[in-house]
Amino acid sequence: MRRLLAATETVAALFLLLIALVTAVNVVLRGMFSIQLPDWFDGSRMLQGIALFWGFALATYYGSHICVDVLWEHVSRERQRWIDIGATTLTLLFLAPLAWMVWIKVGGTGTQGTMDLRLPLKWFYAVSAAGATMAAVLCVLRLVRLLQRADDELLPVSVHEIETGRA
């Protein structure tokens, strides 16, 4: 499991690094030589989509989405677990069709390509679709762990538990 999570983190980080490199190189070339990288804009958009899908997979597994825990922080550990099970199930009901539809998009791109170099969009979309699929898979794994009560690392300590010394 750790290898799968490490690989997912690496993929997301590499694509974020590529976005930063493409943008930095383009700025330097434009500023110093008045030229720009071909397809830097299309390329950075495609790379950003890939990084987002792979990052979303990690946020789903770790349960670290942006959320408001008004109720969650004030209930018992068992009820927190059930709230997380419900939220994770709802997330899975969103991610599974999303992953499917992104793969449908991959199949429907045909010969579309980037503006300058005509790089096929299919490859960018396929890596994004793999990230969406990984998000659904990690969501299932999180749900299984929550249902098996292997949730010590999945349920963060609430502020209320810290304040009352129950943590």
What does this entry look like structurally?
This protein has helices spanning 2-33, 40-62, 77-107, 121-147, 159-164. 71% of the residues lie in helices and 0% in strands. Helix 1 (2-33) packs antiparallel against helix 2, helix 2 runs parallel beside helix 4 (121-147) and helix 3 runs antiparallel to helix 4 (121-147). 20% of the residues are buried. The protein is built from five helices and no strands. Residues 157-162 have low confidence and may be disordered. The protein has one domain.
Summarize the structure.
By secondary structure, this protein is an all-alpha fold. It has helices at residues 2-33, 40-62, 77-107, 121-147, 159-164.
Which parts are unreliable, with pLDDT below 50 for 5 consecutive residues or more? 157-162
Based on secondary structure, the structural category is mainly alpha
Tell me, briefly, the overall form. Answer: elongated
Main beta-sheet annotation:
none
- Mean of pLDDT: 88
Number of helical segments? 5
What Rg, in angstroms, do the CA atoms define?
20 Å
Tell how many strands the DSSP assignment holds.
0
Order of helical and strand elements: HHHHH
CA(first)-CA(last) distance: 26 Å
Helicity range:
over 70%
Q: How many distinct domains?
A: 1
Measured by DSSP, the beta-strand proportion falls in: under 5%
Properties at a glance:
167 residues; mainly alpha
Topology:
Elements (H helix, E strand, L loop, with lengths): L1 H32 L6 H23 L14 H31 L13 H27 L11 H6 L3
Helix pairs in contact: 1-2, 2-4, 3-4
